[in-house]
Structure prediction request, 122 residues.
Amino acid sequence: QVQLVESGGGLVQAGGSLRLSCAASGLKNYHMGWFRQAPGKERESVARITRSGGLTLYADSVKGRFTISRDNAKNTGYLQMNSLKPEDTAVYYCAATTAMAFTTLPSRYDYWGQGTQVTVSS
Prediction:
């Protein structure tokens, strides 16, 4: 059974930081990504990382502020979020894909966590 569990969300003031974690079980060395979904919005990719962690890519909206990483020995992924803005408020999900390609499309991801709420106040 594959399971992804996010943690680390919470309430933070604008300009603050949070680190999200994604603990994975039942899989290893998948391409992984972080997505977010705000009220009334479609789910969007914010960051992606390859199996080895050798390549990372970000949405323009978070570039320079967020850092995706992974520790394959611990089977855990991370999203460090700095300089948070109110528009970053959303439920954040980690996801994994069995595909070889590197993609932003949610439909290409096979496994999803339950999500963790991030709220950034003004």
About this structure: The chain has a mean pLDDT of 95. The longest strand covers residues 18-25.
